[in-house]
Design brief:
The protein is an all-alpha fold and about 450 residues long. The chain is built from 19 helices and no strands.
Length: about 450
């Protein structure tokens, strides 16, 4: 439970975990934050996961519908995670104290730290690549990484102030750049190699859901500062929905214009008049992605070490991320798979979190203190949900891992079908199991953060 009083006049995020957070973020603030987070350089090239492999591409219409459906489902989950953060006033990983107990919450916390650091390094790498594209050079990568790392670290020192800047200035610049590219690329037209093809639609929808879900373990780190629960949900849902749909569709157009080659996708942006200037806006804006990953890493570490000054944490993590980005120039397929494996952890985890908060022990109030008792039973639906996810779509992290799940599928005489969405069933199974367990879990000890809190 966050029980220290908030100092009068405080307008920045608290320095330690058990200080009550200031409630300064309005709907507009959160809409602008998630609008910015929903637009990313990575997101443009991720459109390839929706379009499909060459020779079996979805039609443009099917791809757009998949983007709309996947975004609506995934962002609804993101909005619920944001809502929980606004009600409890606790960061995302600290909320897991209520779900699992303090000590058991350390497991998903460590996984989230690994995920956030990995994505932070990846973002700095992407920023450097984007800056090289704008500058027309293959050199000075180290300089671009250092500059991006420095800006990222500064943003994390004053997180609420950074969000205010995003709302007032950056969101407008990003909106102008996106409108410009939409008009310019749209005027050029694009081929539709998969015209009429809807085969693979559910797989494409699943990929879009997964991208939205990736922000679920971060959402409460920011919405704990929301003025109202409604503002947290609708600001997050609407801002991220608009941005992700727009980013995906624009990336889809650019991808089709570049012949489906993700390595050449940015040539579509720089190929239009003054495209380099507007791409520069998006490159500079990409630091809000690295900011979110570094800051949320610090918030996760706070669950382990609640009394360490968050400025020391964000500063140290910012330096670590920058140093790693200087060393890692490209990512292997196994590393992408590793991040995907960690991501698959959070789909079933969110299902357990949401059901227990609204229908289980959370209705009486979660205990978020350092003394929150372990709730071992809640591990069951989480683990089973993870198993279902991997059973349907094994992550290619290693040959033995894929082989193991392949053997399980063979033993059960199961062949994955187009309708077997890993995200969908990886959510539904643990959600239903958690719901079935609520008569037992409600009887546990409750804390002081009721589900109906503001």
């Amino acid at each position: 439970m966050l029980d220290r009083p908030q100092a009068p006049g405080r307008t920045e995020a608290p320095l330690v975990l058990d200080t009550e957070p200031p409630r300064t973020l309005s709907f507009k603030d959160q809409f602008a934050l998630w609008l910015n987070l929903g637009v990313s350089l990575i997101g443009f090239s991720t459109a390839a996961t929706v379009l499909g492999a060459p020779g079996s591409e979805l039609s443009f219409t099917a791809a757009v519908v998949a983007i709309l459906a996947g975004t609506a489902i995934g962002t609804a989950a993101l909005g619920v995670a944001a809502l929980i953060g606004a009600k409890t006033g606790a960061p995302a990983m600290a909320n897991l104290r209520g779900l699992f107990g303090t000590r058991l919450s350390y497991l998903p916390t460590v996984l989230n730290i690994a995920q956030c650091v990995g994505w932070g390094v990846f973002e700095l790498t992407v920023i450097a690549q984007g800056a090289q594209t704008v500058a027309g050079t293959e050199g000075y990568r180290w300089l671009f990484v250092l500059l991006a790392g420095a800006v990222t670290t500064v943003l994390t020192i004053w997180p609420l102030g950074s969000i205010a800047v995003l709302r007032k200035y950056v969101a407008v610049a990003v909106g102008v750049a996106m409108v410009y590219f939409t008009v310019q690329l749209g005027r050029q037209g694009f081929p539709d190699p998969g015209a009429g093809n809807w085969h693979g639609f559910l797989g494409a929808t699943d990929a879009v859901i997964a991208l939205s879900i990736s922000f679920v373990p971060l959402a409460a780190d920011y919405t704990r500062h929301s003025r109202t629960a409604a503002a947290s949900f609708w600001g997050t849902f609407s801002g991220y929905t608009v941005a992700q749909v727009w980013c995906y569709v624009l990336g889809l157009i650019a991808l089709l214009q570049s012949g489906g080659d993700t390595e050449k996708i940015f040539s579509s942006f720089t190929g239009v008049w003054a495209g380099w200037a507007f791409l520069l806006v998006l490159v500079l804006r990409e630091t809000d992605q690295s900011f979110a990953n570094v800051y949320s890493t610090a918030m996760s570490v706070h669950n382990l070490f609640p009394r360490v000054d968050r400025r020391l944490l964000t500063g140290g993590i910012g330096v670590l991320t920058t140093v790693l980005a200087l060393q890692i120039k490209q990512f292997s397929d196994s590393y992408y798979a590793f991040l995907g494996l960690i991501g698959s952890v959070f789909v079933p985890l969110f299902a357990v979190l949401a059901v227990d908060y609204f229908f289980g022990a959370g209705r009486r109030g979660w205990d978020l203190s350092e003394r929150a008792p372990s709730r071992w039973l809640m591990l069951l639906p989480w683990v089973l949900g993870f198993a279902v996810y991997q059973f349907l779509a094994p992550t290619t992290v290693a040959d033995w891992w894929v082989g193991f799940w392949g053997d399980v599928q063979e033993a059960l005489h199961f062949t994955p079908q187009s309708w077997t969405s890993a995200s969908l069933f990886g959510f539904l199974v643990p959600a239903l199991i958690t719901l079935a367990l609520t008569p037992l879990t409600r009887a546990g000890r409750a804390g002081g953060v009721p589900a109906t809190g503001a």
